Amino acid sequence: MGLTKFRPITPSGRYKQVSDFAELTTSRPFKPLTLSKSSSGGRNNHGHITKRGRGGGHKRRIRIVDFRRERFGIPATVLTVEYDPNRSSRISLVQYEDGEKRYVICPDGMKVGEIILSGPEAEVKLGNHLPLTRIPEGSPIHNIELLAGRGGKLVRAAGGMAQILAKEGAYAHVKMPSGEVRLIPVNAYATIGQCSNLEHEKLVYGKAGKTRWMGRRPITRAIVRNPVDHPMGGGEAKSKSNEHPKSPWGQKAKGLKTRKKSKITNKFIVKDRRK
Fold this sequence. Notes:
By secondary structure, the protein is mainly beta. It contains one helix and 17 strands. The protein has a single domain, classed as CATH 2.40.50.140. Strands 9-16-10-13-14-15-17 form a seven-stranded antiparallel beta sheet, with no helix packed on it. The chain has a four-stranded antiparallel beta sheet with strand order 7-6-5-8, with no helix packed on it. Strands 1-2 form a two-stranded antiparallel ribbon. The longest helix has 6 residues, at about 210-215. It starts with a strand and ends with a strand.
């Protein structure tokens, strides 16, 4: 796993950095575990644009990833390490002893041929999926459930890693990658290890075309628009707006807290990520 740089023979290639994909073992997905993905262009079922700046992009297929890992006690062999266009981390195709194949999130350092296991009796080993009660404090974990049996919801992006700080009664204090400390039931499951593709945050696209391939269209800055188009637009010549940064519909940006104070899950946050 590493990065590839380019000779600066063009302005766009001067600072460009892309993954070398050295850890991948195949270039094609396992077709039975994929679905077709249609592009919405940011539009809802009425045809109205509800998400601006979407459209175009390369065609993709959805990989059906098993976040629940509920096949307890059945060893699985790692067959591949693959690229998934719908997420930043790598995925692995595993085959259980009875022949069934599934995709799982690939932790950093997991190799082809390794045996992984799920369930309360699994040992604390890279790639194994077990409840928080069985995981020692300080161990790196990812793919964490919020409720037992619901499947992993937290820490699934590239390089993501959480840690168990303490266990008190029915809950464990888990430190998230953002720095937030959260209460999670000790009977919830998590996978041992750190999510793969650690170099993802160092990628440099280098040119606007790369973002177009990813399905993102250009967005004009608010300050250069007309007053009819945006609250921050208008003014003679080039002028700074006295308006606080906001959306076209007046919602303030940059610092306005939008989380409800009465949100029922606030009681599970021990330490806020901003403090």
